[in-house]
Structure formats: C-alpha cells, structure tokens
DNA sequence: CTGAAAGCGCTTACAG
DNA sequence: CTGAAAGCGCTTACAG
C-alpha cells in the first residue's frame, strides 16, 4: 500500500497545489466550489487523513490535553467512584471540541518528571491535574513553564494556578444543618485525610456550622476508606457514648461507620443519625439508605475541560469555579 | 522567554552541529565523552526538551498508544469497577516502557469515525480496544488499515484481531462445580447480557459444567446491573421455588439477587447458596460476604499493554492470551 | 481565488 | 567520531 497517502498525492490527483488541498482540509472559505469538489473527491478516493505530527509542527498545537490523576489517589476506593466520573466528564467535553485526552497516572515523584517533560515536549496544549494529595509542586512548576494548567480541587498552599472544585465547605454545612434542624444535639464527625483539600474543607464546614449553634464538636479522622470509617466510629462511641448523630466526610467511610454502629447495637437513624458525602451508588443501597451530600462529579469533569480549553485558547478565565453541592435525604438521617 | 529552546540553540551553545546534539539526546554510543558532556551541559542550562511532533514526523512513531473504552460500557456500574483496573494496568506497563496513554471513550458510531481518523493520522502507534458490546466493527476496520490493534476480551464473530481475555468459561465452571460439590441440586444462574462476551461465556460455562452432572439448568438473564440481578432473582424464585443455589454472572447482579432473596425470606447460604463473578470490593462487604470468581483485572491491563507493545514493535504475538480465574470462597456459598 | 516557497524542529544516511 | 544536507508532511504569509 506504499504507506498512507500525503497531501502531495492528493494535490497531484486533484491537479492542484498542496496549499489548495490544505485549504480544503482546513475548511478555508476562499476555495472555488469546483476545485473544492475535486479535492474532496481525491481525498475520499485516496482515503487521505492529515498527519498530525506534521500539522502540529507548524501550528504549534496538538489538539490534545493531558489529564493527570495521582496513582495513590486511585488506590483510595472512594476516589475510584469519583475519578471515573471526572474522566467521563472531561472526555465528553473534549470530544465535543474534537480534542484528545491523554491520561497520565502519576505514581511517584519520578513520574512528575515524566509529566513535566511530556508537557514541555509540546505534546499537549494543556494539563488538568485532578485529585492531589498534599501540596503537590506539579501544578506550580508546570505553570511556571508557561503551560496552561488547571486543578481539579483547590491546590493546598498559595498557588496562582486556577481550579475547579465542588463546594466542600458548603456541603458539610448543609449536612450538619440538617442534623441540627432535625433536633440532634450531640453531632460528631468523621473527617477525611487532612492532607487532602476535601478532607480539610469538609471538616471546616462541620466546625463552621457548629459554631453557629451551641453544640460542641466531636471529631475523629479517617482516610476515606471504609475500614477507617468503622474504626473512627468505634473511637467516637468510646469518646462520647451519648452521641446522636454523625456527619461522615465520605460515603464509603459512612458505610463503614454504619457497620460499626450496628455492631455496637445502635439503631440508625433512631439512636444515631448518619449523613455521608459524595452520593456514590452504594449509598442508595445501604440499609438504611444513606442520606448524603451529592456533588456534581461528571459536571466537575466537564467544567474542568471547558475551562482548560479556554485557557489554552488564550482566554482569561476565573481563578476559581466552585460547583454547588446538595443534600440528598434518605433513611439514615 | 522567546519560546522553548530548540536543538539548534543547544547546538550553538555547545559549539557542535545539530546532528551531534541529536545523537546525544538519543543516546548514540558514537559520541566523544567530552563533546557529550558539553552538549549535556547546554541541554541542562537551556532546559531543552525535544519537540515530539518534529521527532514523530521523521521517525514515524509517536510513542503513544490509544486505549478505547466504550462509553456505554462505562455506564454499567459493574464495568466501572473493572475498567479503572484495566486502565491502571495498561498505564503501569506503558509507563515502564516510556509510552503515553491516550484514552478514548467511544460513545457512538460517530466516535468510531473519530477513532479511526485519529489512528490513521498516525497520532498513536497502536490501539487497545477494551470492553466491547456486540460485534463491534472497529477492531476489524483498524486492523484492515494496517494499524496494530488488540482487543480486551475476545471479539464476537470471526476476527483476525488478537486479544487478551480472562477465562470466563473456566471461572463459571469453577463456580458451578463448587456448588455441585457442596451438595446443591437445583442450581440456577443469572446470566449477563448476551451481546457481551463475558455474558455469553459465563452462561456457557454454567451449561457446560451442568452437562457433566445430572442437573437441569434454570436460567434468567440480567444486564450486569444490581437492579437486573434482583429482578432476575425474583423471576427465578417464581420459576423454581425449590432452587437451592444460584451462580450469578457478576458480583453486582449477585448483590441485587442477595437483596431479593432476603426480601423473599430465604436465608443465604442456608436455603440458597450464592456465587458471584468479578470479586469487586463490595463483594467482601456484603452480608453474608460473597463467594465469587476472581479475575485478574490489573493483570489483564498489563498483559494488554505488553502484547500491544510487541505488536507495534513488529513482533509476532499469540492470537489469544487467556488469563486464569479463581474461586474465592466466603460465606455465601 | 491559487501557487511557489519558506519553514516548523527534528533524524539519518552519506561523506569525510 | 562529526557535520552538511536532505527530508519527514504539513501551513501560511506573500505574490499574483
């Protein structure tokens, strides 16, 4: 088959110059209809598809963007329920814009280097970094190199890098307010890891909302896994056997907490009301079904893609976009 | 900053030709140590990173491969538990080989076109297609175009495209054998969708194993979702109220079936033994914990990547690789 | 509206 | 061991 056809061959077949073929391919309006037709026929007959590398070399664009997920994050099962949704949202929006999605799982510091080199090699027009632990230096260093970069979730520490996040603080406040309003008076919380912004903010929301009431805070910390939720719940029961409600910073931890409560002979919601966060599928199937805070997961992915595309296109974008969360009332509270 | 530095600038700074810089960058052994050092210094000082597009244009390689997931598949929650594992496995192996992963969610037939064009534009060195429904024409058409392509899961219908799959038939037989050996005599099954190879093969395995015994088959079909598992279970109880065991073709459907059984007042495993397939996280936390067939998910991803890399490198590879499954015995059977 | 020509940033025979 | 030169397949001012 002598390799795949080139512009040159299409031009020859259509009896025009390469420039003209290029114009047709790129939809330039200044091509005579008859010529356009001839070129299109030649393209179809030859099955011509433009070589992206050649195009990128001259346009300096690749029409693809990288989505970086931290590998350690994908280990947390809670994230496993969230990250696929983000990937799907990003993918949908990118498809619509005819851009490609390059997925990079950042395992270690070593892979940070790989990612930097990759972005620097101009293989992508921009980078979305989702799901960070701690104060990851990657967003800032990419930003410093002049690469369009956007974070999913507010970066810890001061950072000039724009981000899209869900309203963790507001969601937590919603949950606690619901518990207060339903007459609970000893409201504990199981917080997430304090090196992740979702963990930090949901705990802050809890504290902020309690501050408005006369209730005192009762806190245990987990790591977003089911087991850690169960362990934290046992701890809380020891710390305050009289507690009558718990706001748990993730549904998965809430499911663990639910098991621990039932094992301790507490009825949910009669003795202890329980509110989770995330609204994962399993929340609906828990017994009792879990009241929780829903966050727009696919929506966050879409918004990330839209913002990055604008940024890569040279537009000014808001430094932060915060997506609303909502209370989903079920049986557990 | 006048754009990012080029080979040319490195050459000038190091006082050598572009050819020499290129040799150093690509690790050619025929460069004098002193020169090599000078070049490396210049590279470091300038922060030079090769432009991939330029490189690809001449080498005809991109060092990246595409992973295609069907979007409809990601809608099935059962797959949500499986696909991230495959992505992770592929990513691990590709990272080790310093290749990039381009993720494409194939939503519709329209996106099939996009994927073909993308592969044809030589933006990737090969394509892995995971998770197909029906007899998807994509693998064959890519193959016909001369693009290295590999399927996760055996393609339906005759196809020259090589594949990597888990032993669905063998796993199902293992499950049924376990039920037979534990003395069950009315063993039903809930099959998966019959347009997916996992659905078809697991049902075949059930039938094959029963054929060896004197037991008759009792069959209902679901679509791999939890709800469909519950519905199918209700159907089975109606069809044969005396059944004492069920092999369910996915854990998620098995969880639905478990609910339905308990709602119908049957004790598991006392009245009815239950075996699932997949070994997803939730199987371990069911009550009773679910006996199931474990498949190597990340392992399948890794094997896919390894095989595709070989294929793209021009090696001959086996037309099929079948990875073993195993029985994980817990409380439900 | 169309074409000739330069150039994007690399790699790789080919000489020397 | 090193360099000059050709060429990978496109796009885009610049003329006409």
From TrEMBL, chains A, B:
Task: Read off the InterPro entries from this record.
Answer: Cro/C1-type_HTH, HTH_LacI, LacI/GalR-like_sensor, Lambda_DNA-bd_dom_sf, Peripla_BP_I
The residues covered by the HTH cro/C1-type domain are 6-27
Superkingdom, taxonomy of origin: Bacteria
Question: Per UniProt, what is one Pfam family of this protein?
Answer: LacI
Occurrences of domain HTH lacI-type (ranges): 5-59
What are the record keywords, sorted?
DNA-binding, Transcription, Transcription regulation
The GO molecular function terms of this record are: DNA-binding transcription factor activity; transcription cis-regulatory region binding
| CDD domains listed in its UniProt record | HTH_LacI (cd01392), PBP1_LacI_sugar_binding-like (cd06267)
Report what the protein is called: DNA-binding LacI/PurR family transcriptional regulator
Coiled-coil region(s) at which residues? none
